[in-house]
Amino acid sequence: MAEETVVIETEAAPAAETQAPAPAPSYGGGFRGRDDRGPREVDGVEKVVHINRCAKVVKGGRRFSFSALVVSGDAAGKVGWGFGKANEVSDAIKKATEASRKNRFSVNLKDSTIPHEVTGAHGGGFIMLKPATPGTGIIAGGGARAVLEAAGVKDVIGKSLGSSNHANVVKATLAALGALRPADEILRARGKEIKERKAL
After folding, report:
1. 78-91: b or e for each residue (b if 16 or more CB lie within 10 Å)?
2. Nearest to 100 by CA among 61, 151, 142, 52
3. In this structure, what are the phi and psi dihedrals at residue 57, rounded to the nearest 5 degrees?
4. pTM to 2 decimals?
5. What are the angstrom distances between the C-alpha of 97 and each of 32, 70, 103, 155?
6. Domain 44-185 carries which CATH code?
7. Tens of pLDDT along 66-100?
8. CB of 120 closer than 8 Å to CB of 140
């Protein structure tokens, strides 16, 4: 008796519709953030101010190393800077970021700006900061802008009057922010009552 082969046709279940992931945001030229390295936990704001390449000439050729200057803060009154060296850019940035988190200190702010005009200096760097009305934005560039954004200042007028060296500008800006004092403390230092503040 011949065997009969039975073929059963079945319809494949419809594949579940999958939604394509949203494309990653694109940034214009000059952006030096870390968004292209995958998701990670970021504690506040991190800004890479400058990366320097150093070449050491040896018998077999040149050996390159990198140094990175990073500013980080919580955008709510705390900011710090860090410097890192390594043979790879990513390692240098990592070292600098860790150092900047350890060096954070608190800054006295008034709403979205600074409480009073202040100057800061370090080495050949000299910077002047003035409070500004809401909506002005950060009128400063380079390392000074990175420090102010990381500290949480949104409205300020800054002018760099000294060296353009990135490290000196960053340290001068941090010195200026560290010299800020609230109005109550200034009045007490002058021996005046706090209730006289409105008359000043």
Report:
1. bbbbbbbebeeeee
2. 151
3. -85, 120
4. 0.71
5. 14, 6, 10, 25
6. 3.30.230.10
7. 999 999 999 888 999 999 999 999 999 999 999 99
8. no
